[in-house]
Design a protein that fits this description.
Immunoglobulin-like; 49% strand; metalloaminopeptidase activity; Aminopeptidase_N-like_N
């Protein structure tokens, strides 16, 4: 019984570390570059701190971190860091102050997940899809973050995809520059809700009669015809309940 309790405590402390509530993130800029064999990322986290500290602990798992820089006002500081099982501890020479806003920039790269978590690849009718599944605590396998549901923030997501691919994410598209898609900021949300898909997709569109709400169905080219039923039902349901309520 004593051994069992010790094992449970070790597992909890090592793999389920609760992050400090002294750090308050409020905005992320995420840039993913998708290539056939791996993805590269740049994460910018804007945050404040409730208390002076020289250390920031983030969640990160299976990420090959290349550099970490801290920006405040017009100054840049490099952080020293070491990684554990699912966290990265970052240390700074000078303490972070409570009356400042900071930007933490982390550059990294990683292979795709071998399971259906984090960012993973799947093949469908000779096409490759790059998809995400971050619930409950797999966002840390895609980008360094405060991977707890109570630490909500806005997200600005940018994705550079292989040629001839479509990219979808949480919010509407702001602009497309070549193969790079920039999406509008999300509402404040938890990290596990961040999502995107990259692939050679086709779409069909309709608009509701009452409130002119656009509806779009995306699918592989071979299956797009099967989306006609789904989009008709969605249009009918939105029109029906729009009148009812």
């Amino acid at each position: 019984m004593i051994l069992l309790i010790k094992l449970v405590l070790v597992y909890t402390l090592t793999y389920k570390k609760v992050l400090s509530n002294k750090i308050i993130p409020f905005h992320y800029n995420l840039h993913f570059t998708i290539t056939p064999d791996l993805f590269e990322g740049t994460t910018e986290i804007y945050f404040k701190t409730k208390k002076k500290t020289k250390k920031v602990i983030l969640n990160a798992e299976d990420l090959d971190i290349q550099s970490i820089n801290l920006f405040v006002s017009d100054k840049v500081f490099q952080g020293t860091f070491f990684s554990e099982k699912n966290t990265v501890d970052i240390f700074f020479h000078n303490p972070l102050l409570t009356d400042e806003e900071y930007k933490l920039e982390i550059k990294y790269r990683s292979k795709y997940s071998e399971g259906m978590d984090g960012i993973y690849k799947s093949n469908y009718n000779d096409n490759t899809l790059y998809s995400t599944h971050f619930e409950p605590t797999y966002a840390r396998k895609a980008f360094p973050c405060f991977d707890q549901p109570d630490m909500k923030a806005r997200f600005r997501i940018k994705i550079t995809a292989p040629p001839d691919n479509i990219v979808l994410s949480n919010s509407s598209l702001n602009k497309k520059d070549g193969n790079t898609y920039l999406f509008n900021d999300t509402e404040p949300m938890s990290t596990y809700l961040v999502a995107f898909v990259v692939g050679k997709l086709e779409s069909i569109q309709m608009t509701t009669k009452n409130n002119k709400i656009p509806i779009t169905i995306y699918a592989d080219k071979s299956d797009i015809k099967n989306g006609r039923l789904a989009i008709n039902v969605a249009k009918y349901a939105l029109d029906f309940f729009g009148k009812l309520f």
